[in-house]
Specification:
Blueprint lengths: L16 H12 L1 H11 L6 E2 L6 E2 L5 H23 L4 H12 L4 H6 L6 H18 L1
Antiparallel strand pairs: 1-2
Length: 135
């Protein structure tokens, strides 16, 4: 059995296999993007003083480049957050853990998730469907 179960063609939230896997892997990049946002705001790496000679970056525009990169990452994170916010308030935290951090249903249930398997998987399918429509 594969790790990801593709919705069947009879499903309300059917998307082609390639689009589904793209959405899954896009969501799994969420923690990396959150970390990169913090790194992108740190422009102190533009000049390195730990070498014998001072090395500057090839681009003199490090602050604008960092701002542009940070904005792109924030847009990606906000897209995922906006889709997660479509579900009920008590499930947003658990859906984020499941789709962005890769936790399984049993791990989420052990953390106190208030719904059962069918409802969780339906919300997850809806999340991937909506994400695939927007990326």
């Amino acid at each position: 059995m594969s790790k990801y179960r593709i919705p069947s063609s009879n499903s309300k939230y059917y998307i082609p296999k390639e689009d589904y896997l793209t959405a899954v892997h896009y969501a799994l990049r969420y923690p990396l993007w959150v970390a990169m946002i913090q790194d992108a705001r740190d422009t102190s790496t533009a000049i390195r003083y730990d070498k014998d000679k001072v090395q500057t970056s090839p681009s003199a525009d490090m602050i604008p480049n960092a701002a542009i990169r940070s904005t792109e990452l924030i847009d990606k994170v906000n897209l995922i957050d906006s889709i997660i916010n479509l579900c009920t308030d008590d499930m947003q935290y658990f859906l984020r853990l499941g789709v962005c951090y890769g936790l399984t249903f049993n791990q989420l249930k052990g953390q106190g998730m208030p719904c059962e398997r069918d409802k969780y998987y339906l919300m997850r399918k809806m999340f991937y469907y909506n994400l695939s429509q927007k990326i």
